[in-house]
Amino acid sequence: MRSTPIYEVHAIKYAHLPRKAWEVQITPDPHDADFPMDYFIWVAIPLDESGNRAIGGKPVVIDTGFNAQIGKKRGREVKTNPADLLGHLDIDAKTVEDVVITHLHYDHVGNWDRFPKARFHLQDKEMQFATGRHMCHGTFRHAFEVEDIVGIVRAVYGERVVFHDGDEEILPGLSVHLIGGHTMGIQSVRVMTRNGWLVLASDASHYYWGIRDRKLFSIVFSVADMLAGYDKLQKLADSHIDMVIPGHDAEVMKRFPVSKPGLEGISVRLD
After folding, report:
1. CATH code of the domain made up of 7-166+247-269
2. Where do the structural domains in the chain lie, given as residue ranges?
3. pTM above 0.85, yes or no
4. Range of weakest confidence among 21-30, 229-238, 254-263
5. Which member of 30, 144, 167, 206 has the lowest number of beta carbons within 10 Å of its beta carbon?
6. What is the pLDDT of residue 251?
7. Burial (Cβ within 10 Å: 0-12, 13-18, ≥19) of residue 268
């Protein structure tokens, strides 16, 4: 019998945006050109000893994306709401009980209202960041949507936010880890799979070149924490950086097999 439960893990793509190196990197390589961004949410589903979905096992959703209205406002097309895309994996957003919010940028916490039964797992420092003095500066404020932040504050008052102060286990085989760097309180998720520890970096490493080459994404709260975060991500994956999944790299959809037939270009299985 395994000492740690294992999960199947999927990356669900719900939007895409062409990007150039100068738009996404600090001090970009002049030889680099295109770095398109895919927008994802992720889901971890517990498995039994036979590798089938555990009876009564409850999925954990990581981030909730943004909707078509916000996409239009920001020049990003959303054809299908990511909460609805979960249905392709036989998951009803209305019944999900645990949602990890890696950070409070608009593309990671929008659609929170599509998960009416969920507890939202969030770092103390991220709420401090999104509601404190740093939001007086447009540079930091730009990537947040005020109604999302207000919604999460309401969820706090509704006893639906679980705060974490650093690294904590949410369920056996699934834990959150404070990274920082991109925002003050960004967290990544570590999940046990049949292939070992998988780390969903989210925007602690937007692209593979972040953790691989120690390059800096253009939106950064702390350069020092972002660089230290790359080291922590690698340790969480037991030094196997191919087990660290970046938050926006279009390469993810090419590296992993489709979750199931019919979901080509929409969902890949990471485990």
Report:
1. 3.60.15.10
2. 7-166+247-269
3. yes
4. 21-30
5. 30
6. 96
7. buried
The residue with tokens 């895309």 is 85
Q: How many CA atoms lie within 13 A of 93 on its CB side?
A: 20
Q: Is 64 left (phi over 0), alpha (psi -120 to 50) or beta?
A: alpha
Looking at residue 17, its pLDDT comes to 83
Tokens describing residue 211:
């953790």
Mind listing the pLDDT tens digit for each residue in 59-108?
999 999 999 999 999 999 999 999 999 999 999 999 999 999 999 999 99
What DSSP assignment string belongs to 77-120?
--SS-HHHHGGGGT--GGG--EEE-S--SHHHHTTGGG-TTPEE
CA dihedral 200, 195, 35, 103 (to 10 degrees): 0
Cα–Cα distance measured from residue 31 to residue 246, given in angstroms and rounded to the nearest whole number:
22
Cβ atoms of 197 and 190 within 8 Å: the answer is yes
